[in-house]
Structure formats: structure tokens, C-alpha cells
Amino acid sequence: MTTMTQDWKKRFWETREFEADSNLWIRRGRGIGSIVILVLGLVLALINTNFFMAAGAVWLAIAVAYPTHGFLLFYCALTLYPISRVVTISLRPAQNLLSTSLSVIPDSAALTSYENLFNDQDFALWVWNSLIITVSVSLLGVIIAATSAYAFSRWKFPGRNLGLFLLLSTQMIPAGMLLIPIYIIVARLNLTNSVLGLALAYTTTAIPLSIWILRGYYDTIPFDLEEAAMVDGATRMMAFWRVILPLSAPALAIIFLFNFLSAWNEYMVANVILKAENMQTWPLGLNSLILQFQTQWGTFAAGSVLITIPVLVLFLYSSRWLVSGLTLGSVKG
Amino acid sequence: MQGLTFDIAVERLLDLLPLLGMTVLAIIILEPALYLLLTRVFKTKYALPFTLVAPAVVALAIFTVYPFVFNIQLAFSDLRLKTISCYISEENITNAPCSLGQAALNADANINLDEIPVRAEPSETAEVAFTLQDGDEVRVTGRSKAVGYTALTGFATSETGTVCNPLDAACVQRQREAEAALKVQDERYWWEIKTSSGQVGWIPDVTFFMSGDADVYAESAAGGDVLGSVISGEQVRLVKRESETWYQIETVDGIIGWVTAEPRQIKLYIPAATLTVYDDQSTDSEVVGEISADQEVNMLRDQPLTWYEVETGEGTAWINAELRVTELYRPSGDVPLFSEANFLTEQTITLTADQNARLTRRQTETWYEVSDLSGQRGWVNVQPETVEAFEIQEPQDILSVAEGADIQVLGSVEAGELVVNLSSTTVEDTIWYFIQTDQNVTGWVKATPEAFTDIVIVSETTAMIANLESNLVIATLPGGTQVEEFDSSELTWYELRLEDGTSGFTNIKPDSIIERYAAPAEISAYAAFDDTSNVVTTIAEDTEINILSTQDAPWYQIQTRDEARLLGWVNADPAEVRTIFTNSEDGPLHAEPSHLAETLAEIQSGDSVQVKDDQLRYWHQIRTETGIVGWVEAVPKERVTTDREIVLYSLEYGWNNLKQVFVDEDPETGEILGWGRLLQTENSTFPRLMRTTLIWTSFNVIFHLLFGMILALILNQKGLKGTGIYRAIIVLPWAIPQVIIALAWRGEFNFQFGFVNALVQELGFEPIQWLFKPTPALVAVTFVNIWLGVPFYVVTLLGGLQSIAPDYYEAASMDGANSFQRFKNITVPLIRPVAVPIVTLDVIWTFNNFNVIFLITGGEPNESTNILVTALYNAAFGPNGQFRLGFASAFSLVIFVVLILFASVWITQSGALKGIYEK
Q1: What is the value of pTM for the model shown?
Q2: Under a CB-based contact definition with an 8 Å cutoff, are residues B856 and B749 in contact?
Q3: Residue B154 has what pLDDT?
């Protein structure tokens, strides 16, 4: 607090040697202005007992005094409020679901929506369906990408450049474009409405990008390491298994996460392939809560919160690497 | 609702076994085999890399390259899956109505391209009342807006036009225009249509009828402005349902408001015989009309009513009034009747055997068996009371007051005497007891009792009788008499009324009770179980009737299907409309189930008929589309299966598909109607879609870059406090699954309940119809996607900015460059290698973004927020697309080419992928 006040004094009252008079008075004006705004706003808010007015006054005062923090706070509010609303709605008791209240913590908060989610809906089943599809697809994707990327990184075999280009081109294919043929293929295999059908449809979605990212990572590992292993008598594959794979564990984790998130959040393909109610993955299940005759916002919000929390934790924990991984593969080449 | 059980969890895991099997097979057998093949047979030095790449190549070949090629192939086909799913017979394809996912392509499905099912009720799940054939003339007699349906089986029908063969593109196109005129906002209608033969049914629509009278309020709360009222049975359009009880409706008069009464859907009924329509549920009510046999009516509600066959003095007859039940009592021997329900009252009359009495009242009385101190036992009907008593220890006087002046000695008690304790008081640490002796002397003593005991006394003077079967009084017990209680018994008294009107009570249980019925009011008795039959007699009120048999006959509230809105009650059993069957072979229609009977008509194989009676083994009574009822020998079957090779490829199809993306022309005249015909609402939609896509992509990318850059620059400032927290908060939208974000925002853009409008109103503006007006809807979805995309830019650009060495800025500051110059000359060039690939990716991602638009608006209203990819999805799988997969494939190719052109121009101009081949 003391540093804040000192900072405040320094910013607004102390004369700086090189500063022109006009600038000094603008600076001081802002300081006084922010205090005036704060006081006036709070008085007005107290008279009207309006929380929004009070919050607005505080924000305006900060924005006048520290425009940077003002902007960042505004943007954070813009980010946080809609997200917090989901939590709010999930906590509302059934009779207040359709409230126009803007408050963050609802009156008489209740966990009925969460109970409904498990008692009246197949939430656990949705999550289980999603989970087994996602995990198996991600594992398969990591296995395929890890070996292929190694080949792309260490050999200049014929067709390598073409292959890399084609891998990148697949990113441009609109998702809807492959949807029709994939749907027909899955239907012909008689695998609609089954987790296997969806898992097959998902298998290759994340492979191209995974190969790009991994290849970039392998390139940073010096060849000397494998050479040393091979001098010691290891075969090429043993060197790959013993030396390269352990070294690229972080990259493999990123690939797995990347595969996992893309399959976990997928909606469009699942919507076409899975129709039976007990086969749905969670995006379909949550969407079905919205599409029904009477929208079950509370239940939807409760499901969203439960889905989001683990994903959020996982993501925030790994976001730094995810970004570096993405740029590693697609930017540096 | 099935729930996750252990069995299901395991079953799902086992479903994935083939995937595991394939992987293991590939690693253990296929890969080594391929390696050996490459080294020994082809002797290539790249055997190992080829082997390593093989799985990816195979996987991509199967699930990316082959679909891609297949997609091109499909573009040259006329594949459409419109109505397959409704008629599929496979059992494991389950519940949802008419959606594509239920149909397997080569499943044994019935494809009715030339037929349009018309339903008895405006519901996807309703029975198919009849089927429209290609070229049938229909008239749209009503329309309504659907709520909440996700699948569409209905078909474009112009208000005066014909129903087309969907293969006839020109006809379909003309009808689209007609539908466009009818269409409002984003929800489709069900139309009530009437064919030339008078059949009435529904093509997707939703109409409801009120189940009761109700006021229409302006708001969904009672007490607001009343806009009007609706009566029971009135036709309304259900706009919205808000809670279990509030419905927003639109009446025939066009009033839109809220009611609490429950609207319900109708059923179509056809009466078996001519019926009189009454105003109320009674044949006594006003006759409002008559409907003839085989005339279709809407069944609004039904109410069962019991008919009784009764025996009156003038023979048997049928009545349908609610009867009052009475009980007749017939004693087996003489029964004395008391004037009141007590033994001790006067015994007035005696009911002799074979004399009838009606039971009018029952009452129960409790009797107690007691004995007094003299040992005489008997029954009293006054409840004995329990009081407290104790034994006197020392002889003493009984005083009038415990302490004070005027103490009188009232008597004395002996040691060992039992006295009743009535109360007690404490005077100067001595307890005084107020007692009562046997001699009824009451007063105060101060003797300390050793122990209290309970004694029983009768509280008031009562007669004691010998037993409950007689009224012999053996003693009269004065109130307060000490008795011993043995037993108690419930005694039921019956009030009987004799036929001569006298009445009395008896406690002897009747041994013969006959249920009789009495008319509650004057009612008519009919000759037959039908109120159109002769009235035999009139039964006066309270007349007793014997019921011989009962028969339940429902009353139906009906409404005729013309516009006259005749509402009334009929009480014959209407024949319910059943599934439409088609006849399996040509043949005559007979009046009776016999070849010898009169031939009513010739019917052809495939004619739609309605089965009325299938009780006979070989003969079926049917009703044809023209309303003739007769018997056929052939077995009608449910819908004709048309086996058809579904996928046909030809260059012509391909050309047509491709042309349809860009040009809409009248095939007969060759006249160009517009550019592009992807959507139903307008002709020139390809340019419109391109425009929306470009607006969508450019706004998104520009704002992503703008906000991303600003935030990254701010967060990159030296000495800014709380950067970590800001960064963590800003990155949140990226971390949350898009599906959740999109659906949550969709709720927040809700007109009434979303916070966006709440905020808008808080700021003093009018609320905006975000999702139902074209421009606000586009603003809404674009806003959400900008909100979603900024974090990615912030994080990546921040990474780029942090890698710029601060030396550059210091050097520039030395040279006197201001902050804008520093940004322009240092930051921009150095951040470019990071920013350009991100923008490239973002352009592709935004261009291909499906989730946000599809989940928030679905391309609506009026497809104004459709971009190319969502239009593609709608054309292929969407509710308005009719599953024209061939056309959708061609369309997707066009989109792909557009994207490739767009991306390649961008990439070559910006040098985004420079360095790919450098290694």
C-alpha cells in the first residue's frame, strides 16, 4: 500500500526536472480528476444504491489515473463476466433460472442443477463416451505421429518434401468437406451410432499438425546422441526408443494434449455420426439440453462447469508449451 | 435416460477393441513385414523411414485422401438421403425422428422420393395420415411457426401450388420462393393442407388447442395487461413455453400473449356414423351441428361417461346421468328401533323381517365394561376417568382451608383409608393435600402420602346395563363413583328410515344390505345405449333404480376441419385414424367381404388406403383416399419399398451440381433466375455467402490482431504490476471448450434473459433482438468469435515481443525516436515472422469456423449469418438442406478452391511459409 501511495505521489505531485509545465498540469489534472470522479461516483452510487454505478466509478477513476490498468481491467471484466455467468446460472435454484439479475452470486444458490445433471441426464455416460474415444484416439495419434515425424526429421527420403507439403495442405480442407465422405464411409462400415465409428473418424484429424510439431522438435535434438548410442551397439530403432523418445517427452505430451483437446471438444462430426441418445459425447449431450423444447439452462451450465474445470486446469498448466509447440511446428518449419 | 452403469462402460470399451487390435496387428506383423519387403525385395536404402511413415500414410490415405477423392466423386452424383431415415426397419437404429444419422446408406430402407408424408398431427412423431403424390393439388389452410424442432421432414409447398417431385429442381425452386414468402425468422412452419379430395393433414407445423378458458396476458405473469382471452378448444399457435405453466401463444386473431392454461395438440378423428354435436357434455344441451360419417374432425379432448342400463317400474332402459348410491337394509328378524342412538332411550317401533328400511346414517359409540365397589359388573357409555389416590398414614382431621382463619373441621380420616387426591399446595414447607373421601367429604389434610395409586371413577351419573345385547339397566352410578374398568367395546348405531317415512336407530348389525341407486335429478331413460334412441321414460329425482349393466361411453370434444370452427361434444366413438397403408395389388373393392358382393371401386397397387377392419384373415375393410369404404381381399402393407440404386454418377450430375452452386436457372427456359441457389430464401445466395464469409473473416482477423497486439504490447511493458494475473485471465476464453462458450453466449444473447440485453437496458437503451435480426445476429456471432480468438494472439504475440532484445529500443530512444516510431520501425518488422503465420492460421481457422455460428444462430435468421462452411453443413445435413449430398460435395469443392486461392495469394504475398524447405 505504501508503495502505491508513493507511486501515486511520484506520478502526480512531484515535479520532474525535464518536464514542461503543461505536461505537469495535465498529469496533476488527471490525478485530481480521478479522485473527483471516484468521490462523485461513489456518492451517486450510494444515493442510488447502485452497485454498477459504484463499480463504474472505481473503474473510471482507475482508468483516468492509470489508463493501462483501466484498459486491462475492462478487458478482464469482459473476459471474466460471461464465464462467471455460467457458474452463476448453474447455481441458480430451478425457479429462478430465467432471471434477468446481473449479480454474480445468485439469490438462494442451490445445487439442484448439478443433481439434475446426474439424476435426470446421462451426463456420466456422455463424459465416459467422450473420454474413451478421446484417450484412444490421442494415444493412437501420438504413436503414429512420433514414428512418422522421426522419419521426416532424420532422412531425406524421396517424397519427403511433397509429404510435408501435403500434410500442411490438409489443414486447409474445410471440416465440412470431409464430413460427407467420412459419414458415408462410417455408414457403410455400419459404424454409425458407435464409439468405434467416431474414433475412426477422429484418428487422422490431428496427425498432420502433430507430425509437423514433432518434426520441428526432433530437429533440435542433435544427431550425435543417436550416433553415440549406435556406436555402443544399439540399432537405429533402439536408439530412437532409448534416446530420442525420452528426450522428446515434453513434445509428446504436447502432442497428446493437442490431440486430446481437439477430439474432446469436437462437435460437428460427432453430431452427424452419433444420433442415439445413449451414445452421445458431452458436446452433443450439452447441446441437446439447449435444443429441447424447454431449454435447461441450469443443467447445461452445471455440465459446462464440470467439463470446463479439468480442461481449464490442464490448459492453464500447459498453455505455454502448447503455444511454443504450435509455433515450433508451423512457424519455424 | 439410461445412466452410466458398469456394464455399459465396459461395453463401450469393448466397442473400441478393433482399434486396439488393428494397432497391435500393425506394430507386430505388418510393420516388420513391410520392412522385410522393402529391404529384401526392393533393396531400398530408405526402408526404415518408409516403414516408419507407412502408418501415417495409410491412416491419412484412408481417412483424409480417400474421403477427399470420394468427395470429388460424390460431386458428380445425385446422392440425396432425404427421407431414408424415417422408414428404416433396423431395430438398433433408435429413437430420434427423421434424422440422417439413423440411416445407413445401404440399409434396407424405403426411399420415397416421390411421396411426401402428411401427418395427422403437426408433429414429427405423429402418425402419417396419408401421403401426397407427385402432382397433387393442395391448398394451405393454415400455418404456424414451429418451436424447438431440429429435424425437418416437411416440404416446401406453395400456398396455391402443387407438391413437387424433389427431383424436379425447377419445381422445388419455385416452391422455395413460395416458402420464403411464408418464412419468418429462423423457425420453420407446419402447414395445414387440404387436398382436392378433402383430406386434411399437416406438413410440418405446430398448432395447439386450448385445454381450458384463459386470459391472454402481455407478460408471463398474472396481473399484467390482459390482451384478450381464449376459450377452451380455441386454436392457437404456441410461440414459446417458458415454464411448466406459462405458454406464449398467438391466437387466430393475431394476439400474441401469455396464458397459463395448457395448450395441447390435436388428433384427427373420423366418426363411424352421423353424429349430433352438442354444445356441452350432455344430450340436454343445445345441438350445435351435425357431422356426417367419414367426415374428419379434430379431436380436442375426451371425457368418459358411464351409461347405466336400469330397471324402472316400466321396464329396462339406458340412462347416462351420474347416479347416487343408496343402501337398503333388510333385517332377518325383528329389530327394535330406538328413538336415539342409545339403549337408554325410548324404543319406538320394531322393524319386522321382510320389511325394507333405508340406511341413512351410521354413528359409532364406545361402551366401557366396569364394576362398582359392590362388585356388580356392567356396561356404561360414559368414559371413566382416572384419578390419583393415596393411603392416609395417620388419622387426622379434614380441614376446610390449609391455613388461615376460620378453619373448620369437616371430618376425619383413619389411618389406612384411601382418599382421592384432587390437588396440593405448599405452606411453610409443609405439603397440604386437597382430598376427597369415600363419604364425599372434600378438604385439606397435611399427611404425607407414601405412594400414589390410580383409581377409576365414572365422571357423571350414568346407567349401567347388563350387557351390550340388551338394554336391561342394572344400576345407576352417580358421578364420581369409583369403579374398576375391564374392557371397552365399539358399538355402531344405524339410523334406518322405513318406507313409511318413520325412522329409528338400531345397534344390531344389518345382515342383509342391498346397494340401490337413486336418480339425482330428473333424467331421461333411453331404449338403447345411445342417446339418439327413443326415450322410454323419465325418471324422477330420488327414484330408486336397479342397475343391470354399465357401459362406458366417452364424450369427445370435436372441431370440424373447415374454417367454421364448429366446436362441440359428441358421444359416439369416433374411429381413430390409423396409419395409412397402401394396397399391395390391383383389385376390386367390395361392399361385403365376399367376391360375390357388389363392387364399389377398383383400387390399384400402391394406392393409399386406410385399414378399418383387419379382423378377418383374408379380407380387410379399408377406406380409400376418396372416402369409399369397402372390403378387399389383398393384404395391405405398410408403405411400398422402392429399391433404388442410390448413388449414380455422371458428368451431367456433376455439371448440374457445380452449376447450381453459382447459377440458378430455369431448366425449361434456360433463363437465369439468380446467382447461386444454396439457400432456400433467395436466388442470389452465393455472392451473399461470399460476402458474409469475407466480412466474418476480415472482421475477426482484424480485431483479433488489433486487440491481440494492443494487449500484448501492454502486457509486455516493463514494470507493469499484475501481468501474470492479467495474462491468466485473458487466456481463459481459449481454454474453455468452444461448444460451451458458443452455447453459453447463445443464452446470453437471449432477448429476455440474457445479460447482454440486461446490460443494454441498464445503460438505458432499448433491448435488441440479437438472434432474430440479421445485422445484430452477425454482430453477435462476430463478437463472440473475436472474444474467443484474442487470447491466442495475445499469448503468441507476447512470446514474440518478449524475444525482441531491449537493446533495439534503447538504441532507438537514444536516437530520439518517439514511441510510435519505435513501434513502427522496430516492433513491426521483428514481430512479423511470428504474426504472419498466426494470421495465416487464423484466416484459415476463421474461414472454416463452424462451431460458433452453427451453435449460436445456426446460420439464421433467414440464413443471414450463414458463411460458406455452415451453408455447406446445412446443405448436407442441416434442417433445410434435404440431405443433398451430391450437391453439397460439389459445393465443398468450390469452398476448398476458394480457400486455396485465398490462402496461396496470402502466403505468397506475406511469405508466411518461407523456410519450410530450407532444411
Answers
A1: 0.54
A2: yes
A3: 30
